[in-house]
């Protein structure tokens, strides 16, 4: 995504697979939209069983992080990180995209404290 994102789980569980922007070449995304800011990686579901050999090679070389977000937990996803989200059942989630790190009070406080 174009912006930093806070994801808050209210109910249910989501499995989130994340990959850093440094995996750009490996994932070879296809981007669209007015600013080419909406991108899809070549591997649509990195957790799928029975991937093609080429897709499995990509997944095996990703610097991925897999998180199962539980109710009451918050995940911070920095701008530019690739992500795949799988609902593990019925879920309720709230998220907030930021356009500027200064909008994030916690980040601002941490910068001032450093």
Could you spell the SSE succession in H and E letters?
EEHEEHEEEEH
Summed up, the helix count is 3
- Termini separation (Å)? 28 Å
From the spread of the alpha carbons, the general shape counts as: globular
Mean pLDDT: 85
Total strand count, please? Answer: 8
Structural class: alpha+beta
Uncertain ranges: none
Radius of gyration: 16 Å
**Biggest sheet details:** 3 strands, antiparallel
Can you put this structure into words, describing what you see?
This protein has 114 residues and is of the alpha+beta class. The chain contains 3 helices and 8 strands; from the N terminus they run ββαββαββββα. The strands form 3 sheets. A 3-stranded antiparallel β-sheet has the order 6-1-8, with no helix packed on it. A 3-stranded antiparallel β-sheet has the order 5-2-7, with no helix packed on it. A two-stranded antiparallel sheet has the order 3-4. Strand 3 and strand 4 form a beta hairpin. The longest helix is centred in the middle third of the chain and has 9 residues, at 53-61. It is globular, with a radius of gyration of 16 Å. The two termini are 28 Å apart. The model has no long low-confidence stretch (mean pLDDT 85).
